[in-house]
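Course assignment 3, question 2. Fill in each field.
Student: A.L.
Task: Predict the tertiary structure for the chain below.
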Amino acid sequence: MTLEDLGYNHELATYRQEQHLDAFDVGRVISEHKERYAVKTPDGEYDAELIGNLRYSAQGRVDFPAVGDWVAIQAYDEHKALIHAVFPRKNRIERRAVGKAGETQIIAANVDCAFIVQAVGWDFNINRIERYLAICNASGVEPVILLNKVDLIGEAELEKLLESVRARAGEVPAIPISNETRQGYPELNQRIEPGKTYCLLGSSGVGKSTLINNLSGRQLMKTDAISESTQKGRHITSHRELVLLPGGGILIDNPGMREVGVADSAGGLESTFLSIAELAKDCKFKNCTHTNEPGCAVLAAVESGDLDEKALGNYLKMEREKAHYESTVAERRRKDKAFGKMAKNIMKNKKKDRP
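Answer field:
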């Protein structure tokens, strides 16, 4: 195995040279467990931790390594190493951190394509798919929708689901697959290229772990029996992990997400809801909220049947979440700035009071 097999490229090599990191080994973070990291290199895997300077200079969790990151390491014992630098990220997929106001959680870093896995069972949810699409679009990551467990439904029902997905997701590819029959696997494998990094996104029980086992040809992930009443598997994966596939692709698995909170979308919502963004240009008021204003082109499209009312409802809900998140971040920054100013004044006064 080479660094290129892990996704190493010319840009990373140039950065390594410019930052004078040639004396260190280079590896990729393949899993994280409470600020300890498994780092993969051509020579093997290392249990690694951050050097003190990196740990204490971090402004927040976003500055810590994430699965998919490239790092410069120095081995100090058998299979143990220290992380001396984190390479710049090409991108990062993130969501609003659960239960932590104003904070984000990195799902994966340096990803080329995200597979959004949705089971076709009783909890099939297009709104959730749109949330994942917004996260992908905000990160600049190509999304592909995988409709799993299609062996449980008939052709007519499947076609109906595909039509509903196409109506809401636009030109985003949607591939019907089955972990049991391997339907759709040839088309999926054609999309996986050597040296490219892919990420699995989806709720618990949609079949991500079984999908990884099938694609890798090995029993890498634990799986559980399917419930007869819900046709869902129980949540098994508890942490993020990077897997090398036989064909050369690199796959990042993630724990099932019960909440897909939208953070700073950076245009993610506009890209996901292009039809709404285009219609909004014709609204009478520039600051139209598309709720009850006269001359709203978006509401007019809903009334005429040209726009799905559920799509608008989902868009407005995510817009409110984004606005709340951004206001929370601004408030945190204001408080941090005020605290920093107060601490600076205290230290200044202490110096004045010294004899």
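Instructor remarks: Residues 225-238 have pLDDT under 50 and may be disordered. The chain is about 35% helix and 20% strand.
Grade: pending
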